[in-house]
Design goal:
Blueprint (H helix, E strand, L loop, with lengths): L5 E8 L2 E8 L2 E5 L1 E3 L12 H6 L5 E4 H6 L3 H6 L3 H4 L6 E4 L2 H7 L1 E5 L4 E4 L6 E4 L1 H11 L3 E3 L11 H22 L6 E6 L5 H13 L4 E4 L8 H11 L9 E3 L5 H9 L4 E3 L2 H7 L2 E4 L2 E4 L19 H4 L3 H9 L3 H27 L3 H14 L1
Parallel strand pairs: 4-14, 5-6, 6-10, 10-11, 11-12, 12-13, 13-14
Antiparallel strand pairs: 1-2, 2-3, 7-8, 8-9, 15-16
Helix pairs in contact: 6-7, 7-8, 10-14, 11-14, 13-14, 14-15
The structure holds ligand K7H.
């Protein structure tokens, strides 16, 4: 077990890469999909199940955990890994995005952001230093810088102001984080949909020599071609030897297209949230089990899937559970989706290692189209 944090490129296929992020709590095989565990739980899943699916790392959220149960309380109880019984790597988001999307009465200044909790209206402050402190209290393995997220579309000068503030906050996070063994601070590239701003952000962050780089401010409703164009703009300015993480992305198609363009890590609430609402992702494409056409379909979702939820329950039964809004329906379909996302990323890793990513993507998209 290593005491350091290191990234090893094990294979390439065009701009796509496969590798390993090695750290004390375990190895993250890339391209990696990180299930979202916002409030110290991957909703509807046992941690043992999440691990058994092949997930090497889960995501936690500073914003949610600082409000409830509180970062100091989690620290007093031994840290987030012990608290949620996930002894493997955890990446925590900094709160930058959630404050903008969830909190009330926000006031943003150079110092940081003050806001009211969406849970009980209590007042809170998040500065770069406090965000790093909270993530340290949680015991996070990969800490994200605090950034200012703008919602798209926005005026260029708004994106520029937010990008420059985020750079100054990255520097403050770097100073507050220091260089603790086995842990990493990732910067977040901002700049809205303005190529020149994105390039400036990437180059300034690369100069800070951080352990990894996220591309943020995307997957906020912009069309896929805008997101992919932004990745192509930023990618050449990010160090080849460090992990790239596309925040909040995405559908299976988003993921394979972003992998093709050099992204290594992903997180998205899509598989868990959609599963709770009866929508699933499979190698045959998407299905909505609310649809009456499944009411008497005795077939499992996918007999070839290794996931019990996909190979041992009829579509009719799952349709019934979804219509009845039964807890088990949410659990089984979350399991189906996370299993597929892990199966897809495992397939991508193997395809890159074998130099056949383009064939794999073509075969995969053919499967989705057949339905
Ligand atoms: C769902 N889309 C999404 N885009 C994101 C973008 C960011 C993020 C989280 C996201 N989620 N977290 C940040 N700290 N900054 C950028």
């Amino acid at each position: 077990m290593t005491t350091d944090f290191s990234f090893h490129l094990l294979g390439r296929d065009g701009a796509a890469r496969t590798g390993e992020v090695r750290m004390p709590r375990g190895v993250i095989r890339t391209p990696a999909f990180m299930p979202v565990g916002t409030a110290a739980t991957v909703k509807g899943m046992y941690p043992e199940q999440v691990k058994a699916l092949g997930a090497d790392v889960v995501l936690g959220n500073t914003y949610h955990l600082m409000l409830r149960p509180g970062a100091e309380r989690v620290a007093r109880l031994g840290g987030l890994h012990k608290f949620m019984n996930w002894p493997h790597p955890i990446l925590t988001d900094s709160g930058g995005f959630q404050v903008m999307s969830l909190a009330n009465l926000r006031k943003l200044t150079e110092e940081g952001v003050t806001f009211q909790s969406h849970i009980d209206g209590s007042k809170h402050v998040l500065t770069p230093e406090r965000s790093v402190e909270i993530q340290n209290l949680l015991g996070s393995d990969i800490v994200m810088q605090l950034d200012e997220c703008v919602s798209l579309p926005c005026e260029d000068k708004v994106a520029e102001k937010a990008m420059h503030l985020s750079l100054r906050w990255a520097e403050r996070c770097r100073k507050a984080f220091g260089d603790p063994a086995g842990r990493a601070l990732f910067g977040i590239v901002q700049g809205g949909a303005v190529p020149a701003l994105r390039v400036e952000s990437a180059r300034e962050l690369a100069a800070m020599d951080l352990k990894g780089y996220a591309i943020g401010g995307l997957a906020v409703g912009e069309p896929q071609d805008v997101m992919l164009a932004m990745i192509e703009t930023v990618e050449p300015h990010l160090p080849q030897e460090k992990p790239r993480y596309l925040m909040g992305v995405g559908t299976p198609d988003d993921i394979v297209e972003a992998v093709r363009r050099g992204v290594d890590m992903f997180d998205c609430v899509m598989p868990t949230r959609a599963g709770r609402h009866g929508q699933i992702f499979t190698r045959f494409g998407r299905m909505n089990l609310k649809n009456a056409k499944h009411a008497e379909d005795a077939r499992p979702i996918d007999p070839q899937s290794s996931c019990p939820a996909a190979n041992s329950y009829s579509r009719a039964y799952l349709h019934h559970l979804v219509k009845a809004e039964e807890m088990l329906g949410k659990m089984l379909l979350t399991w189906v989706n996370l299993a597929y996302y892990q199966e897809l990323t495992a397939g991508v890793r193997a395809a890159i290692a074998a130099g056949r990513l383009e064939d794999f993507i073509a075969e995969t998209k053919e499967g989705w189209a057949k339905g």
